[in-house]
Amino acid sequence: MIEINRVLVLYGSQTFTAQEIAERIWRKTKAFGFRGPVQAMDDYPISQLIYEKFAIFVSSTTGQGDEPDNMKKFWKFLLRKNLPSNSLRNLKFGVIGLGDSSYEKFNFVGKKLNKRLIQLGATPLLDLGLCDYQHDLGHDAVLEPWLDKFFIELKQYFPEIQINNINDNFIPKWKVSVIKGIENNLNNFDHEDIYFAKGQKSFYLEPIFLTVEKNVRTTHETHFQDVRLITFRSNNDSKLDFKPGDIFNIRPRNSKEDIDDLFSIFQSHGIDIKPYYKLLVEEYHDGKLIHVLIKN
Ligand SMILES: Cc1cc2nc3c(=O)[nH]c(=O)nc-3n(C[C@H](O)[C@H](O)[C@H](O)COP(=O)(O)O)c2cc1C
């Protein structure tokens, strides 16, 4: 059953910007007293969408006008030809697109998503917001006024909500705790949805291990942007195969020296965190545990 004061926040994000913004928006909805989760579009059970009444979609555009990997399934479903044109008649929504106007297909995904939701019978609460990374104030230049307007529109349906009287308490989405004896504790988990870092399904392809060979600043020291040319060396001569438009995601790793330094700082301050301890990261929505990650 869908709660009455529920606002769903869904995102499609390739490099986490849209995710971070969606989580910020979600915190705002909580502060106003709304319920509902924030999730990647592909993590959301899409068959429920016909029951939703209010939603905010935050989506970036990647590649050459392509949708991020974590909304591909969702988007493919929405494009099905056999969906009735009034499937989403219950839904009132807003789309905020994140893009960069230096790309030819500026905010292509946000625009397509907004159009498709309308085709399926959903009602936009306001025009879609087109954030531009090229703006001097970044995405916030469009995002902040767009959000103010969104909440004013939403208030028509929830007159009791005080949008000027915001509860500023920080609302955590994650709870992090230290597990000292992982081997024994593991057997105590009976949550249905446990992912372990190693076996975790990832939307990234198999990683390639590379070493940074050169890291050179290409902009003048006085320029506000620090743009770098980073040259990598492949450790095992594996041939890198790529086409224009492919995305190269870098997952940096800390050096052993930095890690040793960190643990010696913990030790000198009497903080009981050892390299072999694991962290239990729990994701909550409305007090309900939905996701568990265990990380070294
Ligand atoms: C490889 C790559 C391709 C991009 N392609 C587009 C594009 O075609 N159109 C656009 O408007 N923005 C494009 N962008 C800009 C991103 O949409 C923008 O940086 C956004 O903030 C990224 O959000 P994310 O981190 O949630 O994926 C591209 C960015 C990258 C890194």
From TrEMBL:
GO terms for molecular function: flavin adenine dinucleotide binding; FMN binding; oxidoreductase activity, acting on NAD(P)H. Residues 7-151 form the Flavodoxin-like domain. The keyword Chloroplast does not apply. One of its GO terms (cellular component) is nucleus. InterPro entries: Flavdoxin-like (IPR001094), Flavodoxin/NO_synth (IPR008254), Flavoprotein-like_sf (IPR029039), NADPH_Cyt_P450_Rdtase_alpha (IPR023173), Riboflavin_synthase-like_b-brl (IPR017938). Its main location: cytoplasm. Signal peptide: none annotated. Gene3D superfamilies: 3.40.50.360, NADPH-cytochrome p450 Reductase, Chain A, domain 3 (1.20.990.10), Translation factors (2.40.30.10). It is found in: Cytoplasm. Keywords: Cytoplasm, FAD, Flavoprotein, FMN, NADP, Oxidoreductase. This is NADPH-dependent diflavin oxidoreductase 1.
